[in-house]
Structure formats: structure tokens, C-alpha cells
Amino acid sequence: MSVVKGVLRNGFEYAERGLGRFFPAEWNPLLNLGALGFFFYWIITVSGIYIYIFFDTGVHDAYDSIEYMTHEQWYLAGIMRSLHRYASDALVVVMFAHILREFALDRYRGVRWFSWVTGVPILVMVFVAGISGYWLVWDKLAQYVAIVSTEWLDLLPIFGEPIARNFLSPDAIESRFFTLMIFMHIAIPLIALAILWMHLQRVTKARINPPRGLAISMFAALMGLSLIHPAMSQAPADLATVPGNVGLDWFYLPLYPLLETLPGSLTWGMATCLLVIMIAMPWLPPMKRARPAEVDLANCNGCGRCYNDCPYNAISLIARTDGTAFEREPIVNAAFCVSCGLCAGSCPTSMPFRRLSALSPGIDMPDHTIATLREETEKAAAGLSGTDRIIVFGCDSGPAHTTVSSDTVGTVSLTCIGQLPPAFIDYVLSRDLADGVVLTGCRENACHARYGIKWTEDRLAGVRDPHLRRRVPRERVRTVWAGKTGMARLRDEVAAFAQDLRDMGPMPRRAERKDHGENRKELEDA
Ligand code: HEM
Ligand code: SF4
Ligand code: SF4
Q1: C-beta of residue 68 within 8 angstroms of C-beta of residue 54
Q2: Which residues are within 8 A (CB) of 406 and not within 5 positions of it... i.e. 6 or more apart?
């Protein structure tokens, strides 16, 4: 399984890089799959409402009403019909890509189960809604879909009378049954929307709107397709004949030939197994789970930064319980915490300069504490020599950074680069542990912990607390967001940075620096 995941993950990274040549980083469609899903959902809704105005819900007039839209009112209702069709197809594509990507990135296991499991009914409902949509056109394809679907459903003892009987002869089909299909076609997407709302409950600041440029280009592509290749119906359904040679839709109906040919017990068995496996996946071995974040109230001032930065809604702020003058305190919901460490990186008390008291922040990761991080940083720096000494802080989801270790390069690993408090960069440079610092991790906009790269960039830019102090020479800090497949890039960038550091010459000694005020502040912090 891990081999499959590795291949998929590399495949996604290469595809993201490929698309990166055509789209700016934040527009990359593969990095906006969930948001694109929502976008297509809205297009389906708006176009669906419009075509519903002209749709005749009676079984005998449905086909004609759609023909009217397609040919007589092609300039509006026809385009709306095509947009409805193509946005639905696009939804299937982005939904499958989204599922595969979350699977490849291992973002469905353990405490992340909630988004995955709520995704499963959404998947089923998108298909049921799409299939019922094909049914409503009441052409040859609709007839084929109706017969194969009802015969398949009749294999289960849920209906008193076989529903396939409705499609045996021209007089058998009732408008009432048709009205039921329309109701399903509208009600199911609404229920799916409610489940989508639940789907996002465990992630904070979910990206549900694609960047404007991406949205415009996707809409333009759908419009172009609708104009060049408008959606058309096949010949009208005729229950007196058996539909043969229907052109299938490969987005919603690819399994229909199997439903038709394989024994029903086998297809029902396969469908049930697939659903059960999908639902069980978050709990299948190998399960590796680091312990959740822990709060140490004795070192917490209730500033709320950890609450603001947690990407998984795992921290709440409640009224202070320890009798101190601070108003609030954070509590961690262990069932939501993915152990990414972003909260420890955001805490103002994660201060490596502290020597007089133990380095115990207000919130920390018990399996990889900030104190351990400082020890590892000092150890990585210990053997380095020259004027191009570099410490690389790298996250486990980025390039294999430990392979760049050498006499001049030391490496330190983190769960997510967002776990690194910016004070560590200051610490490395001001304590002369190295001449330069490299931060590396996932590709931009593709952070495994969702916001690790964004918060890090904001902290470095000084627009998010805790920010990197102004005294830190920015030319001695590099970021390399390269992903698992970016080893060569990391190696090249580290080599180029080493050359730049040699050209810059040695770091000015602390005593020689002009910022005595900053040094005093540092001592006060300690
Ligand atoms: C119409 C279909 C769907 C839409 C529009 C959708 C949308 C989204 C969005 C917007 C996010 C948050 C992304 C972010 O801000 O980082 C998300 C997360 C997620 N989705 Fe979906 N989703 C859909 C279907 C599914 C399905 C079918 C599955 C799997 C069975 C799934 C699995 C997940 C998982 C596991 C996450 C959480 C990722 C994490 O832990 O960071 N989604 N989805
Ligand atoms: S480790 Fe990550 S998920 Fe857990 S509380 Fe901290 S920021 Fe939130
Ligand atoms: S960031 Fe640190 S000090 Fe601020 S509320 Fe969280 S644990 Fe407390």
C-alpha cells in the first residue's frame, strides 16, 4: 500500500509541477481540488435552476422540452444545459483527483477520519444525482440507464413490486415515477451540500473558493466547450424497442456495461465491499500516530495564537481555570489533533534563548518537544566548519533533507515546517551556530498540514506572530518548498546558498553587532 501511495504522491507532485508551468502557484488546479469541487457545484446549481424553468416534468413532454432548450433557445437554455452537463463531468474529475490526492498524502488516517468518512456519502450522492440527471432527458440513453438501474435495484428485496416493470412497455411508465426522479435529482444534491458542510467541520479556514483567476479560466473553458460542443440528446426513448448501441457517458456511467453483463450478486458484492473498505480505510493498519499537543498552563499567557494557527480546529479557548490574571486558556481536543506541531511553532514562549528556566512552552508536542528541537539544532551545528555553515530545517513531508548533510551542512527534522518558531532562526544566526538557515518542506500551497508553509512565510515576512525579528539578516535565510520529489532542487539551492554565504563573508560576531538593544532584549527574554 505504501508503494502505491508513494507512486501516486510522486505522480501528483510531477503533475503539479507540470501544471505549474501554465498556472501561477496559487492557481494550480491540483492544489485547489476541493475548492474547484465547490465551484462546479455552484455552476451546476445555477444552470440547473435555469433549465428547470423550461423543463416539462411529465414523462411524455420531458424530451421535447429539452429539445426546445437545446435547439430553439440554444443561446441561453442550451448553453445552460451544456454548462450543467460539463460542470457535472468536471465535478467527477476533481472529486476523484481530490480523493486520490488525500489518499496519496495520507490525509485520511486516524483523527483525520471525519473528512474522509463524510466524503463517502458525498461520492455516492454525486453519482446518484448524475445518473438521475441522465434519466430525466428521456432519450435512448435515459431508457438504457433506467432499465439497467432498476433491474439492478430489483435484485435487492427493498421494493414490494419490481420497479423495472415501469419500463417494460410504453404504457407502463407513469409520470409519477418520473416526478420521483426529478425530486431525487434536486433533493440529493441538497443533502450532499449539507454533508459537505459537515465534511469541512474539522478543518479551519477551508479553501472553498478557488482563486479568481482559476475560477475565471475554468468557467471560460466550460463555456468554450458548451459553445463548440453543446450537450445533445440521443433519439427519444421508445419502450417498444430495446435500446442498443447507446453512447455512454464515461464520467457517470462507466460501470453500466459491467452491471449489465456480470451477475447481480457479484456487482452488489463488489459495490458493498468497496464502500466498506472506503469507510474502514482511516483505521486500517499501519497506524502511526504521534501524541497530540499538550498545554502547559504555567507557561501560557492565553494569547490565542495557537488557537488561530491550528489548521484542524483542535484548539478551543476557554475561561482561565488556574486563577491567574490571564483571561483565557487553550484546550486541545485530542480527537481532532493531527500532531502537526503548528501550535508549538506559534507560541510566543517557544523561545530557544531561554536558559534560566526550562524551555517549556505553553503548548508543545510530547513526541518532539521544542526543547528537543533546540538540542537537535545545537547538535546539528556542532561539527560544522567554514564560512558557509548551513542549518537545514526540513519537514518530514518535504524532500529527504538529511541527505544534504555534510561538513558544512547540518540538518534538523520536524513534523511540519510550521512547527519551527522563527526565534530558532534568530537563535542559530545570533549564536553563531551557522552562517545561514534553510527551511524546506512541501511544495508551495501543498502543505501536508494545510497551513505550515503559509504561516511560516507570514512569520518570516513579519505579518503573523510570532514573527522573525527585524535584526535577523534576511539574506542568510532561504526557503525551498520542493516537496518529496524536489531533492535535486534542494541540493542545488543549498549549494547556491553556500556560495552566496562564502561571498558574503563570515557573520559579524555578536559583540561586533550594533544592535546592543536587541541583545539586551534577548537576555531579558532568557
Ligand atoms: C463534491 C465533493 C467534494 C468537495 C467539494 C470536497 C471539498 C473539500 C474541501 C474544500 C476540503 C478542505 C481542503 C482544504 O482547505 O485544505 C476537503 C477536505 C477533505 N476532503 Fe473533500 N470534498 C469532496 C469530496 C470528498 C470525498 C469523496 C472524499 C473522500 C472519500 C474527501 C476527502 C477529504 C479529506 C480526507 C479532506 C481533509 C484533508 C485534510 O485532512 O487536510 N472529500 N474537501
Ligand atoms: S498539533 Fe496541529 S492539529 Fe494538534 S493542536 Fe497543534 S496545530 Fe492543532
Ligand atoms: S500560543 Fe502559547 S501562550 Fe498563546 S494561548 Fe497558545 S499556549 Fe498559550
Answers
A1: yes
A2: none
CA of 338 relative to ligand 2 center, distance in Å: 6
Here the cell at position 189 is 444534491
pLDDT above 80 for 213: yes
Kindly report whether the global pTM for this prediction surpasses the value 0.85: yes
Confidence of residue 510 (pLDDT cuts 50, 70, 90): low
Atom 8 of ligand 2: nearest residue by CA position: 310
Position 519 scores a pLDDT of: 45
List residues near ligand 3 (CB under 6 A).
295, 300-306, 330, 346-349, 362-363
Q: Which of 204, 315, 347 to mutate to test the pocket of ligand 2 (most atoms within 8 A of CB)?
A: 315
Q: Does any ligand 1 atom lie closer than 6 A to the CB of residue 66?
A: no
Q: Please give the residue that has the higher pLDDT: either 305 or 290.
A: 305
3-state secondary structure of 411: strand
pLDDT value, residue 512? 53
Which ligand is closest in space to the CA of residue 295? 3
- Read off the DSSP letter of residue 139: B
Q: How far is the CA of 311 from the centre of ligand 2 (A)?
A: 7
Q: How do the residues of the chain divide into helix, strand and coil, expressed in percent and rounded to 5?
A: 55, 5, 40
